[in-house]
Amino acid sequence: MGKNGNRPMILTEDLWKTYEMGSEKIHALHGVSFEIRQNEYVAIMGPSGSGKSTLMNVIGCLDTPSQGKYYINDRLVSELSDDELAYIRNKEIGFVFQTFNLLSRATALHNVELPLIYNGTPSVERLERAKASLVKVDLGDRMGHKPNELSGGQRQRVAIARALVNNPSIILADEPTGNLDTATGVEIMNLFERLWEQGNTIVLVTHEHDIAAHANRIIHLRDGRIERDEIVRQVEAQKPQPQTTEAAT
Amino acid sequence: MDFLEAVHISLDSLKANKLRSILTLIGIIIGVMTVIAVVSIINGLNTYVSTKIFNLGADVFILSKSPAVILNIDDWEEAQKRKDLREEDYQAVKEGCQHCQLVGAAVSAVGRVKYEQQSLTNVTISGWSAAMPQILDIDVVSGRELTPLDEEHKSHTCVIGNDLVENLFPGLDPIGREVRVDDLPYLVVGVAKKLGSTLGQSRDNFVMIPVTTFLKEYGSRRSIRIFAKAYGQAALEQAQDDVRLIMRARRHVPYAKKDDFAIETNQTFLAIWANISRAFFLVTIAIASISLIVGGVVIMNIMLVSVTERTREIGVRKAIGARRHDILLQFLIESSTLSLVGGLCGILIGVVIAKLVSLFTPLPAVIQAWSIAMGLLVSTSIGLFFGIYPATRAAKLDPIAALRFEL
Q: Which of A19, A88, A98, A103 is the best residue to mutate to test the B interface, defined by the most B CB atoms within 10 Å of its own CB?
């Protein structure tokens, strides 16, 4: 990955998101600009109503800003059509949700395969990559299980494997531990740590300080503006280029 | 989107909601089942009717007082007023019809036949002229046929059907024995070939006597039927024209008036039957169509429920890269797979019904390949058509709203 080490992976310029409620205009995003480079581990924090969900939707290409520009790997994505956005989501974004959002009738393996189905990966390669992805999250022995046969932590790991399977530019996690007990939450955060060490770029949306503390950088949002953007953990230069991601590309 | 994947998903959701699926599909099942069963049975009936009921030879026609099938009351009243056909008419036709190879006369009644202590009622007593067995292809298997000489002498001789042999003469050779037909003695001279039964009615329950004897014993004030066999099928039209001309001349029917007698061929009977069976077929198709449309609406309803239930799933699929048409296709394949399964069940039940009918009734059921193909095609199209709206709704869902959706 990382086609351009010096250019930011994610670049936003003056993002606005405005909703009209009757005659009133509500600004969920109020001119947000930031950049995220490859292999950063960023937490976006803020109380509810701070605009962090809206920002996450925009970063995740589920939504487009009302104003401003958003680039992923130098590609302007803020003005794309629905289907083009779907393509970007498939290629560049790996979603991890609070509620896992797995298909309940499908096996873990099939759930992980799903993104590959939508980009037309041939079935043999699809199977290989889905398996590799599950092995990466230590679920190599649970591939044939359905979500209801797995624990919460395991389900979230399946979701993470699904997010990883297309080698996305960023992994976008929305309160990934919100539905887990503390011990399992720690386990999942350790997994993110490991993925980060392997060279992945992670964006975490949370309102919990303990969770945000795992990141290297925290962007605090309030009322649709960036209140503070702080480096909490100094990382000595860049981590060595990961073998795992290279192998999978 | 993988086609098989979508098929798989829909079969999965079918399995997950078995009762719901059956209830959903009942309209389609009944519709397709009706079509398959009715088409098979009508086809069987057609074959049956043409081989067993209207089985006159292709070169044979019948002259009679009124048509065999009358479909309205005016025709019936008109037919009642017609003159009877007499022996003289038979003689005139026999002499005058140039294109006729054979001409026979027939008249029948129902009566009782007795041999010693055994007796049979409801036996068809047929007064036949000597040419009749040949016109109708009824062979005598033992003894001899009735001859013109029997006819001339109004002799009390008879040829009997197989039922009479079995019931009156168990273990005996009936030839040369005397039976009593309606209390008059007749000498059995021959036994006819076994004909089997039609619609559960035996066709072997008859006794054949010379037509002249019949008219003498049963009274001549009844209309006879005149059977004629043309010189081959090519001459059938001309032979009918001959007969028509003779009859109109004899009765002085004016030029502009219609015949006051009926000439019918096997084709006439088959055409009447074809009309009846077509009407029956159309009514069934109409009823089945209603059932199929209702079935389609039910499928549309259940697909709408399914889209709502799976809003989050749709959100997830969109989040990980499904485009609109991926979702659209998924739900269309689902709805058509659903109704295809209904169609398959319908075909299966329809075939079973047709088989049961042919097993427990004398009607054969001929399962038509085209009706099965049509059942599959129609059921799939219904699923496709009624799936469009729910699938479009699913495809249009906003991914953010869909992901946040709570049931």
A: A103
| Shortest alpha-carbon distance between residue B11 and chain A (Å) | 11
| Nearest CA-CA partner of A133 in B87, B152, B320, B264 | B320
As separate numbers, helices (DSSP H) first and strands (DSSP E) second, chain B gives 14, 12
Enter the DSSP assignment of B407.
-
Cα A165 to chain centroid distance, Å, stands at 12
DSSP codes of every residue in B192-211: EPP--EETTEES--EEEEEH
What are the C-alpha distances in Å from B393 to residues A85, A242, B396, B400? 19, 43, 5, 15
Rounded Cα distance, A184 and B222, in Å: 103
- Give CA–CA dist B209/A164, Å, rounded: 97
Q: How many domains does chain A have?
A: 1
How far is B28 from B35, CA to CA, in rounded Å?
A: 11
Is position A55 within any domain?
A: yes
B232, containing H or E segment: none
CB contact under 8 A, A62 and B399: yes
Min Cα distance B383 → chain A (Å) is: 23
Q: Looking at the complex, does the CB of residue B400 fall below 8 Å from at least one CB of chain A?
A: yes
Sign of CA dihedral B28, B29, B30, B31: positive
B-chain CB neighbours of A89 within 8 Å are 318-321
Cβ contacts from A onto B, under 8 A: 61
Pairing between β-strand B197-198 and β-strand A217-222 as defined by DSSP bridges: unpaired
Cβ neighbourhood burial of A5 (10 Å; 0-12, 13-18, 19+): exposed
Domain that holds residue A109: 39-65+84-248
Provide the pLDDT for residue A40: 93
Q: How many CA atoms lie within 13 A of B160 on its CB side?
A: 29
CB atoms near residue B200 (< 10 Å): 8
Looking at the partner chain, which of B16, B315, B326 has a beta carbon nearest the beta carbon of A105? B16
Q: What percent of chain A has a predicted confidence (pLDDT) above 90?
A: 67
Contacts of A123 in chain B (CB under 8 A): 2
Is A146 within a domain? Answer: yes
pLDDT of residue A6: 60
Which residue from A105, A123, A162 is facing B320, i.e. has the nearest CB? A162
pLDDT along chain B (407 residues), means of 10: 72 80 89 90 83 78 86 85 88 90 91 89 91 88 90 92 90 89 92 82 89 88 89 89 91 86 86 87 89 92 91 92 90 89 93 89 82 92 94 93 84
Coil, strand or helix: which one is B117? coil
Inside any domain, residue A33? no
In contact, A111 and A133? CB cutoff 8 Å: no
What span, in angstroms and rounded, lies between the C-alpha atoms of A140 and A2? Answer: 28
Interface confidence, given as ipTM, is 0.87
Asked whether residue A161 is domain-assigned, the answer is: yes
What span, in angstroms and rounded, lies between the C-alpha atoms of A171 and A191? 12
Residue A5: pLDDT band with limits 50, 70, 90: low
**What are the residues facing B159 on neighbouring strands?**
B190, B208
Which residues of A, range 18-57, sit inside 8 Å of B by Cβ?
57
B274 contacts B282 by C-beta, under 8 angstroms: no
Q: What is the CATH number of the domain that holds A198?
A: 3.40.50.300
Of A218, A232, A171, A239, give the one whose Cα is nearest residue A34: A218
